[in-house]
Specification:
Two copies of one chain form a homodimer. The first copy, chain A, is of the alpha+beta class. Chain A has one domain: Transcriptional regulator MraZ domain (Chemotaxis protein chec). Chain A contains six helices and eight strands. In chain A, strand 7 and strand 8 form a beta hairpin. Chain A is globular, with a radius of gyration of 16 Å. Chains A and B meet through strand 1, strand 7, helix 5 and helix 6 of A and helix 2, helix 3 and strand 5 of B. The structure holds a DNA duplex.
Chain lengths: 143, 143
DNA sequence: ATGTTCATATTCACCAATAAGCACTTCTTT
DNA sequence: AAAGAAGTGCTTATTGGTGAATATGAACAT
């Protein structure tokens, strides 16, 4: 289970540390893609296979679905973690995720997400302030 | 059953004593997350597993669900109690719970809560003054 | 009261994770 | 062939997490 929030920075070559606590779960090789809400997604090989399966079931006949599939697959790349715990993010993905220097890496259960630090704080500030909504959701799933 | 109110302080590295009376129930490993009303929640592994299962069923395609899952999982971490009865709280969670030095730990049945001491006293003062109101609500659940 | 035990507080030293800089290779472009 | 860009790997310094040692204080028994 991937959880937690970590802050690290890209080096001059566009590499990023994979936080030690996520390394085991994400695996030595994993896949990153363009994500939703302006971040990048990262999947372990297992979860990626899972995700691919789901994409395959979408009807090619629907434009929506075609777009959705294109978005994820065209924006995907395989990453490998080096001996020092870093991985390289291709420049097109760095751009897609607005990653410049400071990056926030979060674990979201079955995937990780990479965020531009400022964007993340903006986003999470906004979200956690809607505590009532959160409480309602908690109700829904029974906490 | 987790009950009681305890007051302890963070050491310079951000570690906190788990009160002896809570240790057995919460377990050696447990999970803390951002909570509501400005405190942190702590769940035993069993309670957390339950919660995780439910989160997994939420759809990636809905923004609401994404927000909710992000809030809890990115704000969660697994803690382990060391031989001396302490556990480390990651700095982002210390910040989220406004924990500086003095911390109040309370047992709330299925979970514990960590509060900034001052905030807790403020909150509980305010709440206990409305004890009548609470009593009325008890009606609701048939006490 | 005295000694004993247990829970907690505090400090220090060590080790692992990370940040940052640099050198080397490969590939592309000119 | 030379220069530049991009990718890979190494080395060093720093930070922060972990464990050990010790001190304090409360609860309890004698």
């Amino acid at each position: 289970m991937l959880i937690g929030e970590y802050e690290h920075s890209l080096d001059t070559k566009g590499r990023l540390i994979m936080p030690a606590k996520l390394r085991e779960d994400i695996g030595e090789k994993f896949v990153i893609t363009k994500g939703l809400d302006g971040c990048l997604f990262g999947f372990s090989q297992k979860e990626w296979a899972n995700f691919e399966e789901k994409l395959k079931t979408l009807p090619l006949t629907q434009k929506n679905a075609r777009n959705f599939v294109r978005f994820f697959l065209s924006g995907a790349m395989e990453c490998e973690i080096d001996k020092q715990g870093r991985f390289l993010i291709a420049s097109n993905l760095r751009e897609a995720g607005s990653l410049e220097k400071e990056v926030v890496i979060i674990g979201v259960g079955t995937r990780i997400e990479l965020w531009n630090k400022e964007k993340w704080h903006e986003y999470s500030k906004q979200e956690s302030s809607s505590a009532d909504e959160i409480a309602e959701n908690m109700d829904m799933i029974g906490i």
